[in-house]
UniProtKB/TrEMBL annotation, chain A:
Keywords: FAD, Flavoprotein, Oxidoreductase. Pfam families: Acyl-CoA_dh_1. InterPro entries: AcylCo_DH-like_C, AcylCo_DH/oxidase_C. This is Acyl-CoA dehydrogenase family protein. Residues 208-316 form the Acyl-CoA dehydrogenase/oxidase C-terminal domain. Transmembrane segments: none annotated. It comes from Kitasatospora cathayae.
From TrEMBL, chain B:
It comes from the Bacteria. Residues 18-131 form the Acyl-CoA dehydrogenase/oxidase N-terminal domain. This is Acyl-CoA dehydrogenase family protein. Residues 136-219 form the Acyl-CoA oxidase/dehydrogenase middle domain.
């Protein structure tokens, strides 16, 4: 149960070289390449999967550039719903962390009543405002919203039809939709009061999910690049035999490995609790976002001109890297947050807090 | 080998043994005592420049020199991950560990693995006691990263070998007791063949040590001339002709340890000490955070290799990767620190002041990406490793 799958169709990694003359000579060849698909169903991990397993699955979704809210569902929405004590709906889910939302009681007379975790009538909410750039909102079964109510933080679910949806997208053309809420009533059954800690955990989960996706897309860049430089010949030998190419390729491999290791190292701290997770996840998202530029730069440089076209699948990974590094907190934000907690006397202790 | 399936992108996850937590606290207590004594000065590159045999002996009394050597040879019989915890604590604190560094990291494990029982019984307890110091004689004037081109030759004599040649960059040879020397025992078509390792007494007749001063003025390295030095038969290390295999087999240890990203860490601590006295700007916060995240991430990779080594695997590609990433960070950290808090580097400022540490780290900085195999050469290993995967 609850093992919903998300259909994905991702382009296969090209094993052979591209002959651009063929593209221009035969428009059909372009269609063949661009439509090359590796259709498959990537199963969402079961709800009892460990954080490490969830991270591995999200990494794989990033590697395959899955066009669906896979990470959002597996690593953010579902665990938050469970932690808040709400049932987990079937299907793809997404989330919005929205402190800017106006949240009121729908029944003002009852607003003083109710207690944490209450699901009584009293907690029926009236929410107004805009949830900006919600990932995949248009395809999600439900949106998990975290907001501040007058009585403290709340988590509630929303179905996309309760909002007016303004479609948007990121650089990779992944859906990032605005949801306009004009005094929408959220039944108390969909609302949970949550501890402030869960609000922070939501931010950490979102950042880690995005970092894991970046790690996957980084690996994809490595795979595509190695495939290209070993297959493509110039001056009579494969690109990969050129020293200058090796130098750059090694740096690409290293940067991707670095992100992957930082993400992997955050699993155990997240299981241990919010305080332990803060350093590891801030470090992982900082590193993932900071590495995105270098990974994309080298991958494109080593692909030559074909990599900057839609003929080649590289753009599926690199446009995502450029988008994801900004989403759920960019490297500047996370790095500053990380540094704010450090002094000369605590730096080493923080670094050795993992593993 | 099971590790053959590990991609250079996928590192084993390091889980430190439960004992490591207490061990770390014990080392911190020891370091506090040593700070009070004035021996731990928080200096960069302390594994190259922090020479203090008395400190080494006190460390050895705690069982923290040669700690991964078996107890029957005087070691502490603890794993590589426990050793890792101890050395990362020492390096982060900038403790003076260079006297025993090579004995602990290379000579000890090498003698344990390749040495005769007689060699083990003689050398290992002395190493673990912090009373016997080794140099490594690999590089030569024209060899650099191309170790297979060494020309120092070992000729058979009636009761052993006669070594002739000149080694370069022999760290500490002027102060140490022995050197492990890579020499050619036979001319072979394949230049990786015909090499052997010898344990050479640095006080033997025919050994001549000539200082090579660093641009900072320090005397750390030497030209080590072997002028027909007699080496007894019993001092051949490992199998004759296996020198290349023996040397390269140890490189994963040498390349992936915490010394490959922590050499300049004390400078970052010094920067934070300066910044603790004022409110950091947004730009300073960002840069400090980015450096910290990178240190954290590289440490995870380095620990991953240590975990694999602990399990008996050898990950040459991953080790090369850690070395390139880590040592590049060591250098970049110096430049970042300079830009985060502009400070003129001053070698004559008060020892231990930020300006003096910056000068010290800067003068050492070109070496970070050279020692242990130049990074440009290691990158060839990394791409090859992935392509073969």
């Amino acid at each position: 149960m609850n093992t919903h799958t998300i259909d994905t169709s991702t382009p296969a990694i090209p094993a052979d070289d591209y002959d651009t003359t063929a593209f221009f000579a035969d428009p059909g060849a372009i269609a063949t390449v661009t439509n090359t698909t590796d259709s498959q169903t990537v199963p969402l991990p079961t709800p009892d999967a460990s954080t490490a397993e969830l991270l591995a699955a999200v990494h794989e979704a990033g590697r395959r550039t899955v066009p669906a809210p896979f990470a959002e569902t597996a690593l953010v929405a579902r665990p938050l719903l469970r932690r808040a004590g709400l049932s987990v709906p079937e299907g793809p889910l997404t989330y919005a962390i929205a402190p800017q939302l106006t949240v009121r009681h729908a029944h003002p007379a009852a607003s003083a009543v109710g207690s944490a975790g209450s699901a009584g009538e009293d907690d029926t909410l009236l929410v107004a405002g805009t949830l900006r750039r919600v990932p995949w909102a248009r395809t999600a079964t439900a949106v998990v919203v975290l907001a501040n109510a007058p009585f403290g933080p709340v988590l509630f679910t929303l179905t996309p039809d309760q909002a007016v949806l303004a479609p948007g997208a990121n650089l990779a053309e992944e859906a990032r939709d605005d949801l306009h809420l004009a005094s929408v009533e959220i039944p108390a059954a969909q609302v949970r009061r949550i501890p402030r800690e869960l609000l922070e955990e939501a931010e950490l989960r979102a950042a880690l999910a995005r970092a894991a996706l970046i790690a996957g897309a980084g690996q994809r860049c490595v795979e595509l690049t190695v495939a290209h430089t070993t297959a493509r010949t110039q001056f009579g030998r494969p690109l990969s035999r050129f020293q200058a190419v090796k130098q750059e390729e090694a740096k690409l491999i290293e940067e991707a490995a670095l992100v992957r290791a930082a993400v992997q190292a955050a699993a155990a701290p997240l299981d241990a609790g919010t305080a332990a997770a803060r350093f590891a996840i801030a470090g992982a998202k900082t590193q993932a976002s900071a590495s995105a530029a270098e990974i994309a730069r080298i991958a494109h440089q080593l692909h030559g001109a074909i990599g900057i076209t839609k003929l080649h699948p590289l753009h599926l990974a690199t446009t995502r890297l450029w988008s994801w590094r900004d989403e759920d907190g960019d490297e500047t934000t996370w790095a500053a947050g990380l540094a704010r907690t450090l002094t000369a006397d605590t730096l080493w202790a923080a670094l050795t807090s993992t593993p | 080998m099971p590790t053959a399936t590990i991609s250079p992108l996928g590192f084993p996850e390091a889980v430190l043994p439960e004992s490591a937590r207490q061990l770390r606290l014990d080392v911190r207590d020891f370091l506090d005592e040593e700070r009070a004594r004035g021996t731990v000065l928080g200096r960069p590159d302390s594994w190259l420049a922090g020479w203090d045999p008395a400190f080494t002996r006190r460390l050895a009394e705690r069982g923290w020199v040669g700690m991964a050597l078996p107890t029957e040879y005087g070691g502490a019989g603890r794993g590589f991950l426990e050793r890792y915890v101890v050395i990362e604590e020492l390096l982060a604190a900038g403790a003076p560990v260079s006297a025993h560094w090579v004995s602990d990291r290379q000579a000890g494990p090498s003698i344990l693995q390749h040495g005769t029982e007689e060699q083990r019984r003689f050398f290992l307890p002395r190493i673990a006691a912090g009373k016997c110091f080794f140099s490594i004689g690999m590089s030569e004037k024209s060899s650099g990263s191309d170790l297979a081109s060494v020309r120092t030759c070992a000729e058979r004599t009636a009761d052993g070998w006669r070594l002739t040649g000149t080694k370069m960059w022999t760290g500490g040879a002027h102060a140490n007791d022995y050197a492990i020397v890579l020499a050619r025992t036979e001319e072979a078509e394949d230049k990786h063949a015909g090499l052997s390792q010898f344990i050479v007494d640095l006080r033997a007749p025919g050994v001549r040590i000539e200082p090579i001063h660093l641009m900072s003025g320090e005397h750390r390295f030497n030209a080590f001339h072997l002028e027909g030095v007699h080496v007894p038969e019993a001092m051949l290390l490992g199998q004759q002709g296996d020198g290349w295999k023996q040397v390269t087999g140890e490189l994963a240890f040498e390349r992936s340890g915490p010394e490959r990203y922590l050499s300049t860490f004390p400078l970052l601590v010094s920067l934070l000490r300066e910044l603790d006295q004022r409110a950091m700007t947004a730009e300073q916060l960002t840069q400090v955070g980015i450096l910290t995240a990178r240190l954290h991430s590289i440490r995870q990779l380095s620990l991953g290799v240590a975990a694999a080594l602990d399990a008996g695997a050898s990950l040459d590609t991953q080790a090369a990767l850690v070395k390139d990433l880590g040592t590049r960070l060591e250098g970049a950290l110096v430049d970042s620190v300079r830009s985060i808090l502009p400070t003129p580097a001053d070698p004559h400022a008060t020892p231990g002041s930020h300006a003096e540490l910056l000068a010290f780290a800067l003068l050492h900085s070109p070496g970070y990406t050279l020692r242990g195999g130049t990074n440009e050469i290691l990158r060839g290993i990394i791409t090859r490793g992935l392509e073969q995967h």
